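[step 3/7] fold_predict: job queued, chain A
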Amino acid sequence: MRYQGARVHHPAITDNMTRNCTIELRDLELAVRIGTYGPGDVVPDCHLLDLTLTVARRLVLIDQDEMTLVLDYDPLIARIDQIARAAHYATQERVVTLIAKACAAHAEIEALDIYLRKHPVLAGTGTLGVRLGLDRDELTALRKADASSVIG
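[step 4/7] structure written:
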């Protein structure tokens, strides 16, 4: 069978963003404490993060090997680690929200998809996670909401 070509659909990437690129982080184990567990409850061994950031093609397809030409994601990863270690959270949703806000602080990020999951869920098996996808308009709205909460 000859390869005909395919378009891979990603939840955070809409059709009008197909000329953009993604930066993808997979299976990052966070040092985060989430939830309250009692006797006999399954306590997760780990929380894993997948993060897909949509950026302009000019930040990936570069003519020179210079950090000033790309999105420096190391500070973002450091911020995510800081968020993870900062508190004992009740919900995965709160951690995902804080990660989204950390991403929104980087103007180069045009859209995102966050997937945070825990393992195991039952009898040493399964994963359970929360996924958040924000397109360009939703990320802009988040930035404006954050800016107004700082101002007001």
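[step 5/7] annotate
The beta strands are 21-30, 33-34, 46-55, 88-89, 109-119, 128-134.
The chain is about 30% helix and 30% strand.
exit 0
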